[in-house]
């Protein structure tokens, strides 16, 4: 999560959150030329109520960019819990400690919209929800496969819209990328240190099809 302030006619990012002291130090070293202007707040468990209380104080905007993700969870709640509770944690901290916030930009996923139960060629819009994945998880639980991750995105975004309507003093913008890739800026000495999206791309390049997960095959092929 990053927070935004309006200063001297310009929007600036005064602070962001990291999940550990080590990751914060990594970023501080990468952006050492911005010493004095780069700040971070450590949030080890974003699902805890109040985890973002300090991070959102005195800001006018919030970017909620990511949540812990894995595609190998057995229990659907391993995905749904962090996505849903992490999102609500940020928004409830805004309600309690950030009365000046005017906008929240929330990174959802195309998985929250695209319903594979619809006919091929269906054009999806912001009025659509991936109802199929939610239903699959409700009916099949740990055997719902790829739908566990996708349902987590649906449920988390729905909660975000509900919270935005309840609070009322800020507007919500949801973006829905299919996949997010880019250069790695943090030090990586072995594949296990790659983040989820880059790790999936690495596996596509380095493994045989039979060794790939269904989600990796569907995402990149």
From TrEMBL:
InterPro entries: 3Beta_OHSteriod_DH/Estase, NAD(P)-bd_dom_sf, NAD(P)_dehydrat-like
Keywords: Oxidoreductase
Matching Gene3D superfamilies: NAD(P)-binding Rossmann-like Domain
3-beta hydroxysteroid dehydrogenase/isomerase domain ranges (all copies): 39-160
GO biological process: steroid biosynthetic process
GO MF assignments: oxidoreductase activity, acting on the CH-OH group of donors, NAD or NADP as acceptor
Family: Belongs to the NAD(P)-dependent epimerase/dehydratase family. Dihydroflavonol-4-reductase subfamily.
Protein's UniProt name: 3-beta hydroxysteroid dehydrogenase/isomerase domain-containing protein
Species per Swiss-Prot/TrEMBL record: Rhizoctonia solani
């Amino acid at each position: 999560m990053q927070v935004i302030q309006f200063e001297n006619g310009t929007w600036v990012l005064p602070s962001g959150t990291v999940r550990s002291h080590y990751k914060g130090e990594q970023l501080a070293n990468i952006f050492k030329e911005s010493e004095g202007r780069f700040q971070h707040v450590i949030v080890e468990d974003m699902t805890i109520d109040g985890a973002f209380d300090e991070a959102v104080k005195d800001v006018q905007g919030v970017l909620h960019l990511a949540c812990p993700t894995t595609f190998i969870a057995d229990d659907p709640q391993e995905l749904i819990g962090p996505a849903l509770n992490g999102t609500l944690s940020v928004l409830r901290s805004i309600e309690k400690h950030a009365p000046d916030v005017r906008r929240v930009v929330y990174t959802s996923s195309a998985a929250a919209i695209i319903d594979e139960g619809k006919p091929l060629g269906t054009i999806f819009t912001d009025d659509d929800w991936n109802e199929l994945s939610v239903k699959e998880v409700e009916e099949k639980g740990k055997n719902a496969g790829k739908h566990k991750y996708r349902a987590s995105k649906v449920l988390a975004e729905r909660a975000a819209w509900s919270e935005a309507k309840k609070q009322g003093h800020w507007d919500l913008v949801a973006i829905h990328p299919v996949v997010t890739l880019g250069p790695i800026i943090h030090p990586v000495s072995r594949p296990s240190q790659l983040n989820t999206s880059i790790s999936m791309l690495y596996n596509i390049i380095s493994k045989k099809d039979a060794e790939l997960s269904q989600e990796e095959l569907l995402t990149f092929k």
